[in-house]
Specification:
Layout (H helix, E strand, L loop, with lengths): L2 H55 L4 H8 L1
Helix pairs in contact: 1-2
């Protein structure tokens, strides 16, 4: 076979390999993003609870505690 046919087949091979690996890469990237969102939410909830408990420990009123948490 002439050399230009081989190059054409190699380009097609790289396209097929990319198409096979793309879903795995997207799954990993989106999984990392989802984990980051969950971790951010968990940190936010922990901080809000800590602030509410800190205000309650020094004798804050219920409405002040709710406002601090929100």
């Amino acid at each position: 076979m002439p050399a230009y046919f081989l190059k054409k087949y190699e380009e097609g091979q790289s396209l097929v390999e990319f198409a096979l690996i793309l879903p795995v890469l997207l799954l990993l990237i989106l999984g990392l993003l989802q984990f980051a969102f969950i971790l951010t939410s968990q940190i936010l909830m922990t901080s809000a609870a800590r602030e509410g408990v800190r205000l309650a420990a020094v004798g804050g009123e219920d409405t002040a505690i709710k406002n601090r948490i929100l």
